[in-house]
Amino acid sequence: MEATEQGPIDVEAVRADFPILEREVAGGEDLVYLDNAATSHTPEPVVDAIADYYRRYNSNVHRGLHELSQEASVAYEDAHDKLAAFVGGEDREEMVFTKNTTEAENLVAFAWGLNELGPGDEVVLTQMEHHASLVTWQQVADETGAEVKYIPITDDGYLDMDAAADMITDDTALVNAVHISNTLGTVNPVGELADIAHDHGAYIFVDGAQAAPTRAVDVQEIDADFYAFSGHKMLGPTGIGCLYGKRHLLAEMEPFLYGGDMIERVSYEDATWNDPPWKFEAGTPVIAQGIALAEAVDYLQDIGMDAIRAHEEALTEYAYDQLTMTDDVDVYGPPGDDRGAVVSFNVDGIHAHDLSSILNDYGVAIRAGDHCTQPLHDTLGVPASARASFYLYNTRDEVDALVAAVDEARQIFAP
Amino acid sequence: MSMGSDMYRQQILDHYRNPRNQGELPEPSFTHEGYNPSCGDELEFDVALDDDGETIAHVAFRGDGCAISQASASMLSEELPGMTLAEVDALDRDDILDMLGVEVTPMRIKCAVLSEKVVQDGAEIYTGDGDEADRTTTEDDA
Ligand SMILES: Cc1ncc(COP(=O)(O)O)c(C=O)c1O
């Protein structure tokens, strides 16, 4: 990526927008929130957007001609344009609001996969897929007689692209790849994967749950057929996810859920479908969440995605270097200067859950477990790992607090 | 500080580092294994009964997982010999927490009680009240 033109983040000013970061935990410790890959916090302007919606123009969309409904409908539809543009899409017709990334995966798996896949077809995933895609395509393959294959990872946590080139063939119907691994931090060459897939007439679904919040994404440059991400990981509310899909694919695809709003004309015998994206948003949709997520996009873009990325890369590399200074720590995935903002690790002799419990006593919130990548943890040969993940409001001091708390755990567990 | 720090008292760490009765029994009356999906803890217990077929004579276990689950297994393995299967059946969560002697945070209760559930389920299967194929998990115990 080009050198960033955006200045560095004024972290102190940013933190002032997140009152939750001021709270204490564990009976008086300052909160050090390093679990952003699981969910991010919500800045005041986004909280205000939600409150404003409920206080001023709460009403159903597309169903009323009264003023409140018009205001809500316009704001909700505009939010689709904003989210489409956020990842490089053209407009609302390419942007479906779902519940989360998981539902976006399921939407394509049900609406496209169940109808189009059959025996002889292959779905190619990566060994580092999140359960959101892995379990979903496994089940759809099982149902349709298609076969699932996994692109292996190298010892240092990159995708084995030679293997990918061999595995993606004319039998491949779809490639599903995580853009940034939520466990390894690996940034996958999704554009290259898209080229290989398209050379064989296959589609590519990119899971952008960790990428969209943390860097500028351009679905057209990647040439992604589908691209999914979650609002709650990018300063938005829970309950909303986004599915970008190429215009012609969304137009051709069958619906996912049936009901109100997704129809054009209904008789007692049959129905015809509304245009995308509404064809995929059956029933009263995620109105407040959609409007608030558009506000989160404004917030992120005011700071600048390149500035956010630079901030996180610096923190991630610092954390990687600090954690690996002692040789009883294993960090999984690529080197510290070539990864997304997650660092998963284990400390010799301390189970990740014990580590996380002790870190909590020092106010440090991290994730411990398999991070919804159980097969990947099997590949790594560990049942669980601890994971620190950073966002625009985190500081080097917080990384130091993490490292100090890990050292406390080391003392407690010292033989 | 919160009660979490209390979980890692010396006694827990001692049992975690030096588990008692770790290994296998040559002729167990029954063997049973269990799994705690939230931490990935695994435990397998061998239990040998006295000639009365009621009273526990020897216990051994194998396991892998967090300090709470493994210390709990080690401490329970010391408590069990001399107990009858009926007494084992009557054990509950509070008995285990008393045995551990520390405050266990809510998210970690499943780790603490895995050992108890494994032995109880194994005994149930042995006495014919349980389903042979069952592998114990703490998932339904939330
Ligand atoms: C890479 C990746 N994919 C998918 C998901 C699922 O997101 P959600 O739980 O919001 O559906 C997550 C996060 O949990 C993730 O990190």
From TrEMBL, chain A:
Top-rank taxon: Archaea
Keyword set, alphabetical order: Pyridoxal phosphate, Transferase
Transferase in keyword set: yes
E.C. numbers: 2.8.1.7
CDD domains linked: SufS_like
Aminotransferase class V domain span: 32-402
Reactions performed catalytically: (sulfur carrier)-H + L-cysteine = (sulfur carrier)-SH + L-alanine
Gene Ontology MF term list: cysteine desulfurase activity; pyridoxal phosphate binding
Cofactor(s) annotated in UniProt: pyridoxal 5'-phosphate
Keyword Transit peptide: no
Name used for this protein in its record: cysteine desulfurase
Organism: Halobacterium salinarum (strain ATCC 33171 / DSM 3754 / JCM 8978 / NBRC 102687 / NCIMB 764 / 91-R6)
Gene: sufS
From TrEMBL, chain B:
Pfam families, per database record: NifU_N
GO BP: any one term: iron-sulfur cluster assembly
GO terms for cellular component: cytoplasm
Coiled-coil ranges from the UniProt annotation: none
GO function terms (MF aspect): 2 iron, 2 sulfur cluster binding; ferrous iron binding
Superkingdom, taxonomy of origin: Archaea
Name of the protein in its database record: Iron-sulfur cluster assembly protein
Organism: Halobacterium salinarum (strain ATCC 700922 / JCM 11081 / NRC-1)
Lineage of the organism: Archaea, Methanobacteriati, Methanobacteriota, Stenosarchaea group, Halobacteria
Gene: nifU
